[in-house]
Specification:
Layout (H helix, E strand, L loop, with lengths): L8 E5 L3 E10 L2 E11 L5 E2 L2 E2 L2 H15 L5 E6 L4 E8 L4 H12 L10 E9 L12 E9 H13 L3 E7 H13 L6 E7 L4 E7 L2 E8 L3 H12 L3 H8 L9 H30 L6 E5 L8 H9 L2 E4 L18 H7 L1 H7 L7
Helix pairs in contact: 1-3, 4-10, 5-6, 5-7, 7-8
């Protein structure tokens, strides 16, 4: 989002873990040079806000050490309510005029003081070098992120001995990884759902264009909290049981009804978001839903998504077209790494100076 061109390490800082991916060139494509996940202590990051910066920095350092990543230039990303992504319509103007007026235009669309945010934008249609707009005007993608949140995330990255050179948005990094692995399918409407610990990133894409993005404030933590409350367990015990591990004489069968009830609530929020997308864009169908994020592997989640939305659902494989040497797994299984590292793969594909 805030864009000197060389390769970068993709660093995805989530609420429950940090993920890193390093790519190397391989012919006309890439291969995975290093990949790993490092869990964060509980409550290090709450609802996207960094509470314990030292713990997050320590986790990043451990992750780079365990994966053997020597590079220190990284691409990271943000999401949540401190980030606004919006398409706006403007009259035709030159690039210089747009640069001069974008802050004034942004004041009309973002719910923050414009002095408190960093802005970036991309002309989608109707501008110099962009395809024509049906309305005769310009369509511009506006991205605003609170300076305070940017400072928090870049601060912990620097404390870990790394240099944040690109700061992206989770939803766009996800799309970047998807296009690199699956290509661009003209005419298809694909919903990319990244189910994290505290939020779900949604990016609905049509061809190579992002049609709609939204972050939904519910995720895997809701399962842990429900299991903990209903079965009177500690947070650690609930987390283990949610993952299918027996604790204190209980098996996952004790937790299954609770997990399914939470999934119903999660799908209700996704349904509301899809309904809003249809109303805002006039699009009546979604051809495919692609799931990523560690919490997308909760028991029965993919099947319940399929039943609820009556469309093709598949798991995102960020290594589909980017080969992963089994020797790079560092004790993790490919099945566990794939959903967790989709955003990090998208970030690792970034280059300094990208738009």
């Amino acid at each position: 989002m805030f864009w000197k061109s060389r390769s970068l390490v993709g660093l995805d800082i989530g609420s429950s873990s940090v993920k890193a991916v390093e790519l190397k060139s391989a012919g006309k494509g890439h291969r995975i040079a290093a990949v790993g996940v490092e869990r964060l202590p509980p409550d290090s990051i709450v609802d996207g806000a960094i509470i314990d910066g030292a713990a997050v920095s320590d986790a990043i350092r451990r992750l780079f050490e365990s994966t053997g990543i020597k590079a220190r230039d990284v691409a990271a990303s943000l999401s949540g309510n401190a980030v606004i992504v919006k398409k706006i319509a403007l009259p035709p103007m030159s690039e210089a005029e747009l640069r001069d007026t974008i802050y004034w235009e942004a004041e009309q669309y973002i719910p923050f003081d414009v002095q408190d945010v960093n802005l970036d934008y991309l002309v989608l249609s109707g501008g110099p070098g962009a395809k024509g707009s049906a309305s005769g005007g310009m369509e511009v993608l506006l991205v605003a992120a609170k300076k305070e949140k940017i400072a928090d995330y870049t601060g912990v990255i620097k404390q870990a001995g790394c240099e944040p050179l690109v700061l992206d948005v989770d939803a766009f990094a996800l799309q970047n990884a998807y296009e690199a692995n699956y290509g661009v399918e003209a005419g298809a409407i694909v919903a990319l759902l990244n189910v994290g610990a505290s939020a779900i990133n949604l990016n609905v894409v049509g061809g190579s264009e992002s049609l709609f993005t939204r972050d939904i404030s519910i995720g895997g933590n809701a399962y842990t909290e429900a299991v903990q409350k209903e079965l009177h367990l500690s947070a650690d015990q609930a987390e283990q049981l949610k993952r299918g591990l027996a604790v204190d004489g209980m098996t996952f069968e004790h937790a299954r009804p609770i997990v399914r009830a939470v999934t119903d609530n999660v799908l209700l929020e996704i349904q509301k978001t899809f309904d809003f997308f249809r109303g805002a864009t006039g699009t009546t169908h979604i051809d495919r839903i692609v799931l990523s994020g560690g919490s997308s592997r909760v028991d029965g989640f993919a099947e319940m998504v399929t039943d609820r939305f009556d469309t093709h659902v598949e798991e995102f494989d960020p290594f589909k077209a980017i080969p992963l040497d089994p020797d790079r797994l560092a004790g993790e299984s490919r099945a566990d790494l794939a959903p967790a590292t989709a955003v990090a793969v998208g970030l690792a594909l970034r280059r300094v100076g990208d738009r």
